[in-house]
Amino acid sequence: MAKVYFASARARKWKYGDSMPGKLEQLLKEIGLMNYFSPDEWVAIKTHFGSEGAHRIIRPVFLRKVTDALRRIGAKPFVTDTVRIMGLDYLEVANQHGINHLSVNAPVILADGLYGTDNIMIKAGEIIGEIAVASVIHDVPAMVVCSHVKGHINSGYAGAIKNLAMGCVSGYHRTCGWRCGRGTMHTFGEGELIWDPEKCELCYQCSDICPLDALVFQNEELAWDGDTCWRCGRCERVCQSESISLPGDEERFMHSLAEAARAVMGTFGDKKIIFINVLTEIQPECDCMPTADVPIIQDLGILISEDIVAIEKASIDMLRSSSPLPGSYAQDKKVREGEDILMTLHKKPYMMQVEEAERLGLGSSAYELVES
């Protein structure tokens, strides 16, 4: 049975050790980083830099605790993410959110280069065939996956599996474009965008949010560049008139997440990845959106494990037993006490990604929760 170490967000004493940074230090000691990482070994700390306006990412203080702990055992950490918008702009977003060399005590780099095309094709599975894994993730010998647990319009639940499956995969490949990147998980077939001009209110939120300028309005008509678009789905999410849609297959998507996660994990040796799930400021949506809402669930704490399936199952169990917060999107959607909040909000079969990851041999859903 896999161990999942847990520290509550509650601070019951006025002592540093009862703070969340202090508790994270203790969790890193309990799991024993020296059991996974070696002196002088390069270790990637994979996180999400957020977006301009989406500030509720994992805070730099927690990333600093991880880098400091790795340095104490002689490892050489760096903090990284894959390109979501143009690379220089994305590094500036990270800096605005306080993620820089000074704050995290480690270099901050882009895993797939400034243009997001520095990647290596890896066999993934029956559904998606091959996937473009960021070259830095592919080449680095060890990794700590720091995931901000939240909701998501496509996956329903976003944690460590999605952080690997999409966060470690490029949006675009030099030869086969979006079809080898994240887009192959988001859509099926050609993934053609559908626009209904009768419903469109010409609010232009879709074109404003597109990271690749693949959507342009000309004389009140939508022009879509299907070759440039990497099918992230942001345009569909922000369209409040429901005039834009990207076809998708939910079951295929959940299974493809597990396949892509396995492809990423397959580039590492045994016991060379550990997972940290941060259950604070839990959002209804992904941190790649251009805004952050108030949390839908009260801060719960931090989990750490070497088993990706176990830590995801433990995180989901905690979310399912939590209450919706008043004044949040959960209240807007009239989520009742005792309901599965993320399922009610997004109507996505999100447990499929965890079940498929277990079927593929990535870990075990049976876990022992060890409270710090």
Walk me through this protein's architecture.
The structure is a single chain. The model has no long low-confidence stretch (mean pLDDT 94). 51% of the residues are buried. The protein has an eight-stranded mixed β-sheet with strand order 4-3-2-7-14-15-1-16, with helices on both faces. It has a two-stranded antiparallel sheet with strand order 5-6. Strands 8-9 form a two-stranded antiparallel ribbon. It is globular and about 60 Å long. The chain has two domains: 305 residues, Rossmann fold (3-Layer(aba) Sandwich), CATH 3.40.50; 56 residues, Alpha-Beta Plaits (2-Layer Sandwich). The protein is built from 14 helices and 16 strands. With 372 residues, it is α/β, with parallel strands linked by helices. Helices cover 30% and strands 20% of the residues.
What sort of overall outline do the alpha carbons produce when their principal axes are compared? globular
- The pLDDT mean sits at 94
State the end-to-end CA separation. 18 Å
Instruction: Specify the CATH architecture of the largest domain.
Output: 3-Layer(aba) Sandwich
What structural class is derived from the secondary structure elements? alpha/beta
- Proportion in helices: 25-40%
Strand order of the largest sheet: 4-3-2-7-14-15-1-16
Q: Using only CA atoms, what is the Rg?
A: 20 Å
CATH domain class of the largest domain: Alpha Beta
- Give me the number of helical elements: 14
CATH topological fold name of the largest domain = Rossmann fold
Summarize the biggest pleated sheet: 8 strands, mixed
> How many domains?
2
SSE ordering: EHEHEHHEEEHEEEHHEHEEHEHEEHHHHE
Low-confidence stretches: none
> What fraction of the residues are assigned to beta strands by DSSP?
15-25%
Number of E-state strands: 16
